[in-house]
Design brief:
Length: about 425
């Protein structure tokens, strides 16, 4: 029996080795160099993404040369050890200028898991720039999407998702990045999201579509979001998002809410989240910097800057049914809070009498930042936010990767003041 098991193991390993040996790198280039009758080599590339989508197998890589292409509709999955990669040829920037043959999107992953999409420009598509649904372990990285009809990036029912270092702008109808439909453990990191009609980043469990309606254990970090929400929404919007981490994001000049935790479509309220070291500055036509509603209990808020240029809205709006377990402190705020949607405005002293923000402080952008007028939101050498935060093991670096702390304490906001500014103030890190 032992010899038989050993034989089967050897055969399995040899089969695996053969599979790895069959892994290939294919190339796509526009005609006349590219032709789908070619072998797909660098010297004889294919012409279309759809031909590549129909041909790829686990571990294959497709490198796409500069040029204009119709999108591709991918249904083949890789594996954890052998992902499929669809990527721009190094140093080149292919553009998707027509929808894929099946859906009104640029690049579409339909049940295609363990796949990487990297380095494309996808503008002005009918519905979505890049779409990924009913999948897991998908990476969407280093792409640029502008002017798409509904969304820049859309995902649904996609677990263990990574959306990283993309630019998503000017979505006509809705959002820059939309993560939906019960997909757990998404990471949305390092993206620049601006000028979208609706939300910058929208996470929606949407129980009407099936599943439990909850997005859990998300990480939303190091994103820059501005000028979103002219038709409503939030810079970062969370409907049915639980036990998640929102840290080191910069939001400015958004026209609706800043960061929102609530429930409309989700399978439950947005509970148990940590909102840490974000800088949120609302436009003069914006809503509240932090918006917590619909029984969104047990949320923790630390080391954030919440400022608002609106005439009467301010830092935090929270419903009374969201107050249980809510804990907010060590923030830079305005003296404007509400527990009834803005009908009544609470001062910081009144808010503190409720046990909130006991160590927080009031400051203006002119006092806080290097040059807020020109959108430089790094802390100035005299910023009152420097060293005024709480030490948080869950925020070891800032939005650009600088280690925290640089001085005797954590700085408040998305940026940690760098060492050279600390030396100017006469003390050592």
């Amino acid at each position: 029996m032992v010899r038989r098991c050993t034989t089967w193991l050897v055969m399995f390993l040899l089969a695996g080795a053969a599979w790895v040996a069959d892994a290939a790198t294919y190339y796509v280039a526009p005609p006349p160099a590219g032709n789908d009758a070619h072998a797909g080599t660098l010297a004889q590339p294919w012409a279309t993404l759809q031909h590549a989508a129909d041909a790829v197998q686990p571990s294959d890589t497709v490198r796409v040369r500069a040029g204009n292409y119709a999108g591709g509709y991918f249904t083949t999955s890789g594996t954890a050890a052998l992902p499929i990669t669809l990527a721009a040829y190094p140093g080149e920037a292919p553009a998707i200028t027509a929808d894929n043959p099946t859906t009104p999107d640029g690049i579409n992953l339909e049940g295609a898991s363990y796949m990487i999409v990297q380095g494309f420009t996808v503008n002005n598509r009918t519905r979505t720039g890049i779409r990924a649904v009913t999948c897991n372990h998908v990476t969407i990285r280093d792409n640029s999407m502008d002017g798409n009809g509904v969304w820049g990036i859309l995902t649904g029912f996609c677990d263990d998702l990574l959306i990283e270092n993309n630019v998503t702008s000017h979505s006509v109808q809705q959002h820059g990045i939309y993560v939906g439909n019960s997909g757990d453990r998404p990471v949305i990191r390092g993206n620049v999201v601006f000028g979208n009609s609706g939300n910058g980043i929208h996470m929606n469990g949407d129980i009407s579509q099936g599943g439990d309606g909850i997005i859990s254990n998300a990480t939303v970090e190091d994103n820059i979001l501005y000028d979103n929400g002219v038709s409503g929404g939030s810079g970062i919007n969370m409907d049915g998002v639980q036990n998640s981490l929102i840290r080191n994001n910069l939001l400015y000049d958004n026209h609706a809410s800043g960061i929102s935790l609530y429930r409309i479509d989700g399978g439950g309220p947005s509970t148990g989240n940590q909102v840490l070291n974000n800088t949120v500055l609302e436009a003069s036509d914006g809503r509240w910097a932090l918006n917590v509603q619909d029984g969104a209990i047990n949320n923790t808020v630390r080391n954030n800057i919440f400022y608002n240029d609106h005439s009467f809205r301010g830092s935090v709006s929270i419903s009374t049914d969201s107050l249980p377990g809510f804990s907010s402190d060590y923030n830079v705020v305005m003296s404007r809070f509400t527990t009834d949607g803005g009908d009544t405005i609470l001062t910081l002293a009144q808010w503190q009498a409720m046990g909130q923000d006991l160590h927080s402080l009031i400051a203006t952008p002119a006092q806080l930042f290097v040059d807020a007028t020109n959108d430089n939101y790094q802390l100035s050498s005299t910023s009152p936010a420097a060293d005024a935060g709480q030490t948080l093991a869950s925020v070891p670096t800032d939005i650009v990767g600088i280690a925290r702390p640089q001085g005797p304490g954590y700085d408040i906001g998305a940026y940690e003041r760098p060492v050279d500014e600390i030396f100017k103030n006469g003390f050592e890190p």
